[in-house]
Design brief:
Elements (H helix, E strand, L loop, with lengths): L9 H11 L3 E6 L2 E7 L4 E9 L4 E7 L9 H12 L6 E4 L6 E8 L4 H32 L3 H9 L7
């Protein structure tokens, strides 16, 4: 079937992207998809939700970390430092349970192929950002590191290989 001229539900396009990456996923309904991936640092959960009303896909990646209430000041300082470096999306911490999350919203494009490429790029960029900053979250949470120091330690560039 030629899908270039047929308008699909954008979550169907998300499903194609996730399926091509061979990631585990499930669909709660026509407007939601949840995927799970194992990465270098942790298990990520990816949430995609389509809003027909505003024609946008909300995309969230949650970490397998949880900040207790007594560490929220440091966690929010780290978020501010990270977010000022990002071009796309942002990190936050859910107020309900203290879990770090990467979030971005994509306005839907009329053309399925273009949306497919945009979502592929978005997912790749988001996973890269999560992998890049995950160690900083760990240092603040488990080592009580100063957020500025944790960020600098987790993002310095290495040269060569051991």
């Amino acid at each position: 079937m030629d899908t270039e001229n047929v308008s699909l539900n954008p979550i169907d396009v998300v499903e194609d992207v996730i399926h091509a990456k061979k990631w585990t996923f499930s669909r709660a309904d026509d407007y939601e998809l949840v995927a799970e991936i194992s990465s270098q640092w942790c298990q990520y959960r990816l949430y995609f939700t389509w809003s027909e009303q505003i024609k946008a896909i909300s995309f969230t990646i949650t970490f397998d970390l949880k900040f207790p209430q007594n560490q929220m000041v440091y966690a929010h300082k780290l978020l501010a430092l990270i977010n000022e470096k990002l071009w796309i999306g942002h990190f936050d911490i859910t107020s309900k349970n203290g879990i770090p999350a990467y979030r971005h919203t994509v306005l839907s494009l009329a053309e399925n192929e273009m949306l497919h490429h945009q979502l592929e790029n978005l997912v790749d960029i988001a996973i890269c950002e999560c992998e890049k900053y995950y160690p900083a979250f760990q240092l603040v949470l488990f080592e009580n590191s100063d957020p500025s120091k944790a960020l600098s330690l987790s993002t310095f560039d290495t040269i060569g290989q051991a």
